[in-house]
Amino acid sequence: MHNTFTPSPKAVRSARYQFLLVGLLSLNFGIVFFDRNALGFLMPFIQPDLQLNNTQVGILASALSFTWALAAFGIGKLSDTIGNRKLLLVLSTIAFSLCSFLSGIAGSFALLLGARLLMGAAEGGIMPISHAMVASEVAPERLGLAQGVAQNFGSNLLGSFVAPVLLVGFATAYGWREAFFLAGIPGILTALLIWWLIDEPKAPAAAKAEAPKVSVVSVLLERNVLICVSLSVLLVSYLVVCWVFMPLYLTQVRGISPDGMGWLMGTLGISATIGAFVVSGLSDRIGRRPVMIVMPLLGLLLPLGALYYQGSLWMLAVFFFFGWGLNGIFPLFMATVPTESVDPRYVATALGLTMGTGEVLGGVLAPSLAGMAADAAGLTAPLWIMVGLTVVATITALFLRETAPSQVRKAATSAAATA
């Protein structure tokens, strides 16, 4: 599996169906992130009410990431094995919506921890399944853009823009528990839409009969998959540390009001929503590798701006907007590059590895360690951790092998011309 995989021709679905599929899966994942991010945005209300310290705040984020990772591994592999991706997606969507209600009734750290563990288990398999469905139905030349929109458009429009603005305002008016109840409703609706409007993708029978069995280890050891797993660990760490501790830093250290914090964090959603089209589409044209090398460096702007810029909130929002641009490459290392590097039958397995490992080593360990660092050295410590993660991510991306079809064809044409 050391060469970029060249897929066999597949039946082409109508452009209308491809648009419907990507749009609905993007909306569904947006609701996933609306629920997931709710805890961080509501933490300025929850922390004093439940009397949590920063270490406990980090543990709550780690708990969801841990069970999210297990589900990404297990459900991704299960969907490859049984083939019924649509049913698994619907059941997972309903389950995580119910878990949002559980978060709202939690009266202690232990009960809130249990609710977040269950939510992670419900949510973790959704993106590997969704990306596998997109890969099986969307034309290869539009795969980067399609997977970028599926993962980043809805998740950032709803989870990173609407969520902080709506939930903080709702919690201010009615309470943080009621905000969790609000967050749980939309998932039930999207589950029904997926069941009604989306078809179960058909596996190519001939390819299935001819292809040899491939172990999870051999998928992991494919060079691009291994590098993407490493990037996932580093940048999921960056993402989760920002979600968990940036609201606390802005309100407790910078003295910004909860409403001001909500709008600043909402800027991240606007940035990544635009990036869902711009960054992924750019990678289809100029290649995955150069985009994935450059974008992590933009991530320096966000923590350094929060630490040192003392001007207006509007200008600070500009730092947040461009710094969060690195979010645009998440679909590339979590989905597009692994998809283009392995046999199509093992796409959900590869995606489960990139997402699951990122959640275990990044999403689980990073917020807990950042929380301990914040208790020991103050809330500036998590922001310096974010700085270090971006630098290492850029270095790691240098070792990627290009997989974009446009660039692979160009390289093949060039090689044939010089032969």
TrEMBL record:
Q: Which Pfam families match?
A: MFS_1
Its transmembrane ranges are 17-34, 54-75, 87-111, 156-174, 180-198, 225-249, 261-279, 291-309, 315-334, 346-369, 381-400
Q: How does it sit in the membrane?
A: Multi-pass membrane protein
Gene Ontology CC, one term: plasma membrane
Intracellular or extracellular location(s): Cell membrane
Keywords noted in UniProt: Cell membrane, Membrane, Transmembrane, Transmembrane helix
Its Gene Ontology molecular function terms?
A: transmembrane transporter activity
The UniProt record lists the Major facilitator superfamily (MFS) profile domain at: 21-405
Q: Which InterPro entries match?
A: MFS, MFS_dom, MFS_Efflux_Transporters, MFS_trans_sf
Note the PROSITE patterns from the entry. Answer: MFS
The record's annotation in PANTHER family points to: CHLORAMPHENICOL EFFLUX PUMP RV0191, PURINE EFFLUX PUMP PBUE
Q: What is this protein called?
A: Sugar phosphate permease
What is the protein's species of origin? Xaviernesmea oryzae
